[in-house]
Specification:
By secondary structure, the protein is α+β, with helices and mostly antiparallel strands. The chain is built from four helices and seven strands; from the N terminus they run βααβββαβαββ.
């Protein structure tokens, strides 16, 4: 039975926050539950109410094994949305699930009417950066604003 991709609810917040925190620690990055990661405490308000979206990847045994959010931006340019919180549990990596989440994000951004997809990441996440670059993202560090990120990318839609 394959993993299921579905729209998140606030009930997914604790499991999503735990997955994100574990992935950050794994790569030597600092979780920030009261700052950068506070959006996971109220996914519906931070994503859906703003005109964005957020999905979770659920394993056949009902564990949350992936997250991916789309957060509308007021700047640097109108019509831009940010890819946020795209993380996978370690046992889920290397199976095409990151590509699946990214393809969802690109398609959903277009459906929502956005013209540009932006993201920030950390250079230690080499596999993620390779995935972004293979899918048409170009480096653009002009608008970095998250303290744990040292690279930014943009893709026209």
């Amino acid at each position: 039975m394959p993993n299921t991709l579905r729209r998140a609810t606030n009930a997914d917040g604790p499991a999503a926050a735990a997955l994100v925190a574990a992935a950050l620690v794994e790569f030597g990055l600092q979780p920030d539950p009261t700052g950068t990661d506070a959006d996971l405490a109220d996914i519906e308000r931070h994503y859906f109410a703003r005109g964005g979206d957020f999905v979770v990847l659920i394993a056949p045994d009902a564990r949350l094994v992936g997250t991916c959010g789309l957060y509308p931006l007021a700047s640097p340019s109108p019509g831009a949305i940010e890819l946020r919180k795209m993380y996978l549990a370690p046992l889920t990596r290397g199976q095409g699930q990151g590509r699946r989440l990214l393809e969802w994000a690109i398609q959903r951004s277009r459906e929502l009417g956005y013209r540009q997809l932006r993201l920030e990441t950390a250079c230690v996440l080499k596999d993620a950066i390779a995935l972004y670059e293979r899918n048409g993202f170009l480096r653009d560090n002009r608008a970095l604003h998250t303290c744990r990120c040292d690279a930014a990318f943009v893709r026209e839609l």
